[in-house]
Amino acid sequence: MKTKTIVICAIFAALMCVFSVITVPTGIIPVTLGTLGIMLTAVILGSKKGAVSVAVFILLGIVGLPVFSGFKGGIQVIFGPTGGYIWSYIPMAVVIGLFSAKLSEQKAIAMLKMFAGCIVGMIICYALGTVQFMIVQKMGLIKSLSACVIPFIPFDIAKAVLASYLGFTIRAALQKARLLD
Q: Which of 16, 109, 116, 170 would bridge 104 by S-S if both were Cys, CB 3.0 to 4.6 A apart?
């Protein structure tokens, strides 16, 4: 990797660290800006660099830095009830990045593709995270979806809209400045 690429990936990992600790308590799983950070990272950096940035963010949390929601850190978080949502950020970033590759010159079409990628990415996050939640909590599918997915859908749609708009704008500015390949 080029030095510029390493620095950009590190900056986005730091961005995710900040976004993930911003939470609003809503029960077992808080509303967090963590997924917004993942979406922005993947939309702007693409699949490969986005996944690297997300992996760095997760590794920082695993080694104990308090970068997960509620200022939590450590490997126990990954193996806990909400850990599936965290490790699912990597495939989420890959998918969003794939949707964001080779975008149209038309802003509306590009943003629509980014939004679709964010929605598909969130579905992956919901699916993987909910399976781990069900296993760890020994809870059924309907109860788990009611606790972990349904209350968050409106927030995550709003985050996807915001990530698509901001992501397109920031990505274009970074490309114009020759900071992205």
A: 109
Structure confidence by residue, pLDDT tens digits, 72-127: 999 999 999 999 999 999 999 999 999 998 776 788 999 999 999 999 999 999 99
| Lookup: tokens for 178 | 């020759």
pLDDT at residue 7 greater than cutoff 90 = yes
Size of the chain, expressed as the number of residues it contains: 181
Q: Give domain limits for the chain.
A: 3-176
DSSP string computed for 41-81: HHHHH-HHHHHHHHHHHHHHHHTT-S-BGGGB-SHHHHHST
User: Which residues lie across from 22 on neighbouring strands?
Assistant: none
Radius of gyration of the chain (CA): 16
Q: How far apart are CA 75 and CA 72, in angstroms?
A: 10
Are 112 and 165 in contact by the 8 Å Cβ rule? The answer is no
- With a CB cutoff of 8 Å and minimum separation 6, the contacts of 6 are none
> CA 127 to CA 23: how far, in whole Å?
21
Amino acid (1-letter code) at residue 13: A
As a whole number of angstroms, the distance between CA 108 and CA 147 comes to 34
Q: Does domain 3-176 have CATH number 1.10.1760.20?
A: yes
